[in-house]
Structures are given as structure tokens and as C-alpha cells.
Specification:
Elements: H1 5-11, H2 13-27, H3 30-45, E1 56-61, E2 64-68, H4 70-74, E3 89-90
Antiparallel strand pairs: 1-2, 2-3
Helix pairs in contact: 1-2
């Protein structure tokens, strides 16, 4: 069975260090900043920003989102269908 990404980085500290360095560099780019701004905007619109409820803003369509647990939100497939059913609140 293949090893998960998190298990790989836990068992390879040098690779984890390289990944975190690259991620920090990416987060400073215009694209990285715009993604963070959009995520914060969605969280604020849904009323979950900073309240400690442990929910994610799950993007269900262009400018639409709903609250969802992080485990189920991050378990969605990355390829194929870009958004889920299109249900959710308008955040634009």
C-alpha cells in the first residue's frame, strides 16, 4: 500500500523542511496572497472566521460556499468535477 503524503513528511524531516520552505515562498507570491484573501473573505461571509468552530468554507461553485468539517472538505477529489453540487451561500 502506498504511503500517505503526511506519513512521508513525518518520516522524512529533510523533505518536510524543503516543502515548508517552498510553501512559505509560494505564500508570499501574488497568487498565494490572493488565495488567502479569498479564503478569509469566504470564512468571514459564512461567519466562521476566528470563532473556533473548526469549520472550513467549502467552495461549492464560483463565489459560493458552505460550512463543512475540514476532514470531509479536504477529502473531496481534486481532479474531475471542480465544484460539488453548487449549493451553498453566495459569498461574492
Amino acid at each position: 500500500m502506498a504511503q500517505s503524503t503526511s506519513e512521508y513528511y513525518k518520516s522524512n524531516p529533510e523533505a518536510r523542511k524543503r516543502r515548508l520552505k517552498q510553501q512559505a515562498k509560494y505564500d508570499k507570491t501574488k497568487k498565494g496572497k490572493n488565495m488567502r484573501v479569498a479564503a478569509n473573505k469566504a470564512n468571514r461571509a459564512l461567519g466562521t472566521y476566528g470563532n473556533g468552530d473548526g469549520k472550513d468554507a467549502a467552495h461549492t461553485g464560483p463565489n459560493r460556499a458552505k460550512l463543512q468539517s475540514p476532514s470531509s472538505n479536504r477529502a473531496l477529489p481534486r481532479k474531475g468535477k471542480k465544484y460539488s453540487s453548487g449549493k451553498g451561500r453566495n459569498i461574492a
